[in-house]
Design a protein that fits this description.
The protein has about 230 residues and is α/β, with parallel strands linked by helices. It has six helices and 14 strands. The strands form two sheets. A seven-stranded mixed sheet has the order 6-5-4-3-2-1-14, covered by helices on one side. Strands 7-8-9-10-11-12-13 form a seven-stranded mixed sheet. Helix 5 runs parallel beside helix 6. The longest helix is centred in the last third of the chain and has 11 residues. The N and C termini lie close together (about 10 Å). The relative contact order is 0.15. The structure holds nickel (II) ion and manganese (II) ion (MN).
């Protein structure tokens, strides 16, 4: 069985695994690079990393239309429930759950998490997933941190890292992150959405090949790969 990952631009991903459709941080209608609109996507589960508008995005509308369960930190889920989202699974950092699509653990992220209306969103998070037997780490919005070594100890088939700089780690720190995580494959995200986070992904990929043992996977928004 394989898992398909489709980059929807910025930090947004669609994942199809074990007969389930997942969205991660679905920021679509207001994203200049998203290849689809919120009205056109399906989801059984939505994984939400933190409260910033470029991640919460269209989560409320998609969850209400599809009935998807939103998984994220407790404070984020409480806020979503107040917006009328019916199904949420509130967790906190370090916690893991088994769901119909696989296993999920909330990991540390060094960032912030204020919601669009100014409400506190709790701590920001990343996701360590086990999908069809493959370990997949979405760092989401974060700085480089040394504890990535612990996340990598799981043995990662794939890591997805931000490379945009300014709001998250940039390309140089992502190389160090890859050296700590030691994933088999690595995909970049959270770049080229707007000019302040423009990056040369092909130059990044060359550096990944030269300085790490990971295979870089560079996508255009709307493109997919399978694991
Ligand atoms: Ni953010
Ligand atoms: Mn962001």
């Amino acid at each position: 069985m394989t898992t398909q990952f489709t980059w929807l631009g910025h930090g947004s991903w669609a994942i199809e695994t074990a007969g389930h459709k997942l969205l991660l941080d679905p920021f679509l209608d207001d994203s200049p690079t998203a290849p689809v609109k919120a009205a056109d996507v399906e989801a059984d589960f939505i994984l939400l990393s933190h409260g910033h508008g470029d991640h919460v995005g269209d989560t409320v509308a998609i969850a209400k239309r599809t009935g998807a369960t939103v998984i994220g930190v407790y404070e984020l889920c409480e806020w979503l429930a107040r917006q009328g989202v019916e199904h949420t699974l509130g967790m906190n950092l370090g916690g893991a759950v088994t769901q119909p699509f696989g296993k999920l653990k909330l990991t540390l992220a060094h960032h912030s998490s204020t919601l669009p209306d100014g409400s506190p969103g709790g701590n920001p998070a990343g996701f360590l997933l086990n999908l069809e037997g493959a370990n997949v780490y979405f760092a989401c919005d974060t700085a480089l941190f040394l504890d990535m070594q612990l996340i990598g100890a799981a043995g990662l088939d794939l890591a997805v890292l931000p490379i945009g700089d300014l709001f998250t780690m940039g390309p140089a720190d992502s190389i160090q992150a890859i050296q700590l995580l030691k994933p088999k494959r690595v995909a970049p995200a959270h770049y080229n959405t707007w000019p302040p986070i423009a990056q040369d992904a092909n130059a990044w990929a060359n550096q990944v090949r030269q300085e790490t043992s990971a295979e870089p996977i560079v996508l255009e928004p709307g493109e997919s790969f399978t694991l």
